[in-house]
Specification:
Elements (H helix, E strand, L loop, with lengths): L1 H5 L4 H26 L4 H28 L7 H27 L7 H23 L10 H28 L4 H34 L2
Helix pairs in contact: 2-3, 2-4, 2-5, 3-4, 4-7, 5-6, 5-7, 6-7
Length: 210
């Protein structure tokens, strides 16, 4: 009985990997949506909503498992933060696409497409980083990806500044459009922030286990 209690439940790694793959799939679908916009917008929006529901399910199941598991492979707080922050990334991308449909945006900007490209790159790096957690002692294979995610977040910050400058210039006579696009841009930029948050959590985990 005591041996059973002391067994570490490594299935959490599978949950992390499922979540990261779901995040990456969402980013790629987002990019396809914006590149083809407005073609099949409703279909793509539905696909992203389904991805968002899948993410919610993974998050819920992981937290339930966390509440019933005696020995976890990582600190409980780290597990909770990892899974919820990855879920937030999907929620924000879903929010951006939902706003595009709700506001009936006729065409998307080049900056919006650029944001999606940054998110694809960030989530690909995130997926590699999450997979590396199974081999946490090999930090040299994980840390560079975390650093690259930080770089992509900086690109996202710069994109937001550029996008807002352009928005106030091109839509200065249409404040409603400014408000609509500001909200969309902020969702996309916040998604890059959450990618960086996950990288920070992983760096903290590596530090604790060094």
């Amino acid at each position: 009985m005591f041996k059973f209690l002391l067994n570490t439940d490594n299935s959490f790694y599978e949950s992390f990997e499922s979540a990261s793959q779901n995040v990456m799939n969402c980013a790629k679908t987002l990019l396809e949506t914006l590149q083809q916009y407005p073609k099949e917008l409703q279909i793509k929006a539905t696909q992203i909503k389904e991805i968002e529901h899948k993410g919610d399910k993974i998050t819920h199941e992981t937290i339930e498992k966390l509440n019933t598991t005696f020995m976890t492979p990582l600190d409980r707080e780290d597990i909770h933060q990892l899974i919820t922050n990855m879920d937030d990334i999907v929620d924000l991308m879903d929010g951006a696409v939902s706003r595009l449909a709700l506001y009936q945006i006729p065409t998307v900007t080049k900056e919006a497409v650029s944001f999606a490209e940054v998110l694809v790159k960030s989530t690909e790096l995130l997926d590699k980083t999450i997979t590396g957690l199974r081999h946490i002692d090999k930090r040299e294979a994980i840390i560079p990806n975390c650093h690259e995610i930080h770089t992509m977040e900086n690109v996202g910050d710069q994109l937001l500044r550029t996008a807002m400058v352009d928005l106030f210039e091109t839509e200065k006579n249409n404040p409603i459009n400014v408000i609509k696009w500001k909200e969309i841009y902020e969702d996309l930029e916040a998604a890059t922030d959450r990618c960086e948050d996950v990288a920070n959590i992983i760096e903290g985990i590596i530090l604790k286990n060094a």
